[in-house]
Amino acid sequence: xxxxxxxxxxRRAGNGWYWPWKWKDCVVSIxxxxxxxxxxxxxxxxxxxxxxxxAFAMEPAKYPxxxxxxxxxxxxxxxxxxxxxxxxxxxxxxxVSTPSPFEKGQLAFQGVLFRDVVKLVGLEGESSVVLxxxxxxxxxxxxxxxxxxxxxxxTRQDGELLTRxxxxxxxxxxxxxxxxxxxxxxxxxxWIWLIKTIAPGN
Length: 202
Known about the structure:
- By secondary structure, the protein is an alpha+beta fold.
- 24% of the residues lie in helices and 32% in strands.
């Protein structure tokens, strides 16, 4: 179809008159719409890709460096390796506000991403890890838990370092408000505290 024929196509203007499309304007309009759709698609893809990052559920936090107190021990290959609070908090602190399955009200915790902890202790290749508490309560944490969302290994509550009296020195936190998929009967028992050891799940 010739350009002059294409220009005979009309659209309604706001004043009730019909004005012809210009061929160049038509092409530019189509390109803009397609680029806009592509832009939106890329944004959605980007958001989906980083949806597990802490920015969506947690805020960066900063506190004075903690003492070199042993937080827990890593048991693997017949060895028991201590990990200190200082080592943990050097991974980068984040803060999250969430309800708890076992405590009342909205609670504020600070700590490090559990996936960073798993990497620090050399267990990132495992399909699960086993956490054992000081009272020998045991939970197996599957890999999908720390990849589906940002689990927090809390070292602090309301900015104060956790102690044995406050269920520390570390405890595992599932951010329930920001990740409702974590709020299930299967995952609630995995809120383990007074963590004594971490080991491979296999």
